[in-house]
Amino acid sequence: CGASCTRGQEREMRVETLKRHILDKLGLKRSPTIPRNRTLPRAPPMQSLLDQYGFYPDRSGNIVSAEDITQAETETVITVATPRKYSFSPVAPFNESGCCFFKFGRHVSRTKVNKAFLWLHVRAAENMQSTSIPLKIYRIAPASSAYPEPYKILISSHKITDVKPNEGVWVSYPIRDQVRRWFHNPAENLGIVIETSEAGKDLIVLDPKPGEEPLQPFLVMHTHDPGTVRRKRMAGLNCEQDSNEERCCRYPLQVDFREFGWDWIIAPNTYQAYYCAGDCPPIFLQKYPHTHLVQQVNKAGSVGPCCTPTKMSNISMLYFDDDGNIIYAKLPDMKVDRCGCS
């Protein structure tokens, strides 16, 4: 603080603090390890997420946010189906290749699900007579007194009518109540079963072929985790990095997550965090009248005012969690808007 730290030291401290805060706010003990073959769903929701929340490529090809709360407010979660071997044979038989299992982390399952959709990719119907495909979605229910082994229960029935002869399409179906059931009782999460006609088995991507990994089924969940508090703070100075200003001032600080080796952050790749540096001697305290009054009352204090953030804002982030879920979240207090003496 003040003369005890150089501007370079203030920058380094700010970066290390940001790294700790990001993990804390996301409820992570360490950086998630993402398998190298992990791919993003090549689907409308992923692109719409990037568009909706203002993520776009800059001139250098970096994914940045247009936006330039204690815990992150999770808003959208994308969970890709993962393979799972079943050790049972349900009463109503089904083909294991038609099963979809979705794994949810504890942090995600604690949120309230407002909406949830199952997305399926339909391949191009090159030699198909009909352009309509029947579809049934079942949940796999745990064994009970009536059934010694897990069995399937119908969730919904649909008809895919927009099959195209020359290109694949994505279709989505609401599945909120089932996801809520899984969140309420994780032991019931044994997955779902997708059943269709013989022709549909070849068109709906349930067991991806090589190169079709981004087309496998996935869930998009819109969740709510309330708790945002906004506070008014005082104005401050803005300076360039090479400024000779001695007073408390806000300086630019470009954070590049790739430099940390944080490949688990999808977007943004980089953002402007800013940091505070400078002195708060008595001659400058008239700029901060509230702080000056506090100092007069606390003259016995041994530490003077420090240059510190007086207003901060959140950033949006799209990232992989420990379980491979793709999550959109708002992280509070990650960008310094103003600096002052306090």
Automatic annotation (TrEMBL):
Q: What residue range is the signal peptide?
A: none
A Pfam entry, by short name? TGFb_propeptide
Q: Where is the TGF-beta family profile domain?
A: 230-342
Name the CDD domains for this protein: TGF_beta_GDF8_like (cd13751)
Q: Does the keyword Secreted apply?
A: yes
Any GO CC annotation of this UniProt entry: extracellular region
Sorted alphabetically, the keyword list is: Cleavage on pair of basic residues, Disulfide bond, Glycoprotein, Growth factor, Secreted, Signal
InterPro entries named in the record: Cystine-knot_cytokine, TGF-b_C, TGF-b_propeptide, TGF-beta-rel, TGFb_CS
Lineage: superkingdom: Eukaryota
Q: Which residues form a coiled coil?
A: none
One GO molecular function term of this record is: growth factor activity
What is the role of this chain? Acts specifically as a negative regulator of skeletal muscle growth.
Q: Which family does it belong to?
A: Belongs to the TGF-beta family.
Protein name, UniProt field: Growth/differentiation factor 8
Q: Which organism is it from?
A: Branchiostoma floridae
Tell me the classification of the organism that encodes this protein: Eukaryota, Metazoa, Chordata, Cephalochordata, Leptocardii
